[in-house]
């Protein structure tokens, strides 16, 4: 059985993924890296409370098979573009570097629909930049998931997301053909897709757009 590692296990997708991993007979050990104690207890779970700004302190803790990166924030929540970039680019990059050095089998990360390193949108540009970093890393297998607008119960309120969800649900009949990837997606489906993709025997750098995630996460 395998060992899974996760950063972002307290978020919308990460918390659901963690539950899937704990219930799975594919994994005998789940290692999470968090800023504070979550209070979650399970025989298979090993929780490391770390300072994400000091990668040298957790270097030796990264040992396993599948690394899941579901960490992410927004510019509003982070407080600035610099703080946002630290969470969505620097932290994943630091962990990916160590994962590559430690010969972790695969690295799976939640990106975003429209991620593009050349975008004028800072959010999409940052997502595209971490994708590019991973593309040219020495990791044997990298899976990029680009979900559309996420549906699910977040711990924090996001007005823009609520408004967007309302309108996208109202016009969901329009998301057919080439527009399918823009259809809102349940966070639970993304978590299921992450888990399923990790069990596939693929190699190299693979991007999964939101419509593909919908199908895999059924």
Describe this structure in words.
The relative contact order is 0.14. The strands form 2 sheets. This protein has a 7-stranded parallel beta sheet with strand order 3-2-1-4-5-6-9, sandwiched between helices. Strands 7-8 form a two-stranded parallel sheet. Helix 3 packs parallel to helix 4 and helix 6 (187-198) crosses helix 7. With 218 residues, the protein is α/β, with parallel strands linked by helices. It starts with a strand and ends with a helix. The protein is built from 7 helices and 9 strands; from the N terminus they run E-H-E-E-E-H-H-E-H-E-E-H-E-H-E-H.
Distinctive features:
alpha/beta; seven-stranded parallel beta sheet; 9 strands; 218 residues; globular; two-stranded parallel sheet
Cα separation of the termini:
24 Å
Given helix and strand content, the structural type is: alpha/beta
Helix content: 25-40%
The total beta strand count reads 9
Strand content: 15-25%
Helix and strand element order: EHEEEHHEHEEHEHEH
Mean pLDDT: 91
Taken from the alpha-carbon principal axes, the silhouette is globular
Q: What are the low-pLDDT stretches, counting only 5+ consecutive residues below 50?
A: none
């Amino acid at each position: 059985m395998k060992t899974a590692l996760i950063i972002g296990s307290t978020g919308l997708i990460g918390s659901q993924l963690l539950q899937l991993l704990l219930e799975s007979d594919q994994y005998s050990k789940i290692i999470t890296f968090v800023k504070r104690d979550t209070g979650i207890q399970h025989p298979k779970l090993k929780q490391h409370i770390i300072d994400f700004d000091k990668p040298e302190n957790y270097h030796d803790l990264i040992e396993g098979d599948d690394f899941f990166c579901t960490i992410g924030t927004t510019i509003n929540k982070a407080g600035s573009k610099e703080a946002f970039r630290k969470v969505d680019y620097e932290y994943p990059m630091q962990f990916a570097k160590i994962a590559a050095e430690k010969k972790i089998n695969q690295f799976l990360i939640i990106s975003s629909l429209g991620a593009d390193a050349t975008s004028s949108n800072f959010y999409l540009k940052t997502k595209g930049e971490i994708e590019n970093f991973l593309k040219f890393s020495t990791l044997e297998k990298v899976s990029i998931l680009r979900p559309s607008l996420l549906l699910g119960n977040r711990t924090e309120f996001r007005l823009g997301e609520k408004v967007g969800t309302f309108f996208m649900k109202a016009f969901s009949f329009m998301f057919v053909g080439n527009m399918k990837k823009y259809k809102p997606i349940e966070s639970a489906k993304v978590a299921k897709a992450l888990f399923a993709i990790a069990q596939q025997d693929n190699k190299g750098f693979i991007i999964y757009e939101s419509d593909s995630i919908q199908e895999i996460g059924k």
